[in-house]
Amino acid sequence: MARVLSCIQPTGEVHLGNYLGALRNWVGGQHENDVFHGIVDLHALTVTETPNVLGENTLSLAAMLFAVGLDPDVATVFVQSHLPQHSQLAWIMECTVSYGELSRMTQFKDKAARREADFVSAGLFTYPALQAADILLYDAHEVPVGDDQRQHIEITRDIAIRFNHRFGDTFVLPKAVTPKAGARVMDLQNPDNKMSKSTSGDSGIVYLLDEPAAIERKFKRAVTDSGSDVVYDRANKPGVANLLEILAAATNTTPEAAAAQFSQYGALKAATGAAVVEMLAPIRSRYHELMNDRGELARLVRRGDDRAEQVAAATLARAHAAIGMLPR
Ligand code: TRP
User: Fold this and answer.
1) Which of 109, 194, 220, 237 is an active site residue?
2) Is any atom of ligand 1 closer than 6 Å to the C-beta of 82?
3) Using alpha carbons only, how large is the chain's radius of gyration in Å?
4) 281 lies in the same domain as 305
């Protein structure tokens, strides 16, 4: 079994794009691999300035991960800040990566440019070192990531190779893998763009916790294309194609087969809304059950934390020993 690590930041509500694009694959993968899923609140701290939101977002995301179907008996779901090893190894990573390498990270350049008028923290700059610590602590063989994260896995490999060369073989070299194709969900109001909270307003985004009536409304108002035929054609009919892909993902069929069932946009929109409501109903109810039973939720998180810490503590000890730091 391969050790697989993927992490998610607790910044904002989980939407349909997150679910169909990634989380549903996490659930499917938990029986094939030894999976670790970190809620990386320290990474979110690079852009968090408001008090009393990060903890609640972290807990809510944990409830959501269990609600979508991660099984605490097989998947290790943990909170990054609960394990001091992440911060401890991150410093060592910072001393193993160069200023030049960090300066070349495209995500840093983009984020720093977008935040020009805001506070650009040093943490935003050293972010990849913390991410390298996340990955290397778990001896992860595979890290499933989208294209925007590939550079972060590459730099992690470079750091691991450099450390192993300096101090002796310590870290497993991770590999970026392309996640099993999930649905690529586009914004309902702007189907040329990915569904993403950073680029659009709420009317184009379906949140997993939206009320059923709101979900149906969003689909009813979804932007479609000129013409009136329901055919699956991503290039020429992106709005309709998006609805068909969502419907297919929600009902386990193909977009082509879904298209054959409809002759009008209106019926397609209504059916897609209804299918999404039905798919999300058990997730919503499990989520609220857990959020209303904080003791149980805390117990599930602690189990993941404990299991993660066993691995992380052993790896950190190995790194300290390899460097030859003075044991206390
Ligand atoms: N940087 C990742 C993102 O923004 C989140 C992340 C942090 C991560 N640590 C990780 C992803 C380790 C994979 C492995 O999506």
Assistant:
1) 194
2) no
3) 21
4) no
Nearest residue (by CA) to ligand 1, atom 9, is 131
Q: Across residues 24-36, what is the average pLDDT?
A: 95
Asked if 103 and 165 sit in the same domain, the reply is yes
Q: Are residues 298 and 262 in the same domain?
A: no
Q: Which domain holds residue 58?
A: 3-182+294-323
pLDDT tens, position by position, 196-255: 887 668 999 999 999 999 999 999 999 999 999 999 999 999 999 999 999 999 999 999
Q: Tell me what percent of the residues of the chain surpass a pLDDT of 90.
A: 91
How many domains does one find in the chain? 2
Q: What is the CATH number of the domain that holds 279?
A: 1.10.240.10
Q: From its phi and psi, is residue 204 left (phi > 0), alpha (psi between -120 and 50) or beta?
A: alpha
Is there an atom of ligand 1 within 6 Å of 6 CB? yes
- Span between the terminal Cα atoms of the chain, in Å: 35
CATH number at residue 311: 3.40.50.620
Pair 98, 231 in one domain: no
What atom in ligand 1 is closest to the CA of residue 135?
12
Q: Is the pTM of this model over 0.85?
A: yes
The pLDDT score that the predictor gives to residue 193 is 93
Residue 220 falls in the annotated catalytic set: no
CB of 241 closer than 8 Å to CB of 296:
no
Q: What are the residues whose beta carbons fall under 8 Å from the beta carbon of 305, sequence distance 6 or more?
A: 78, 79, 82, 83
The finding on whether 67 has its CB within 6 A of some atom of ligand 1 is no
In a domain, 190, yes or no: no
* Nearest residue (CA) to ligand 1, atom 11: 7
Q: What is the spatial distance between Cα 118 and Cα 112, in angstroms, rounded to a whole number? A: 9
Q: What is the pLDDT of residues 260-318, one digit of tens each?
A: 999 999 999 999 999 999 999 999 999 999 999 999 999 999 999 999 999 999 999 99
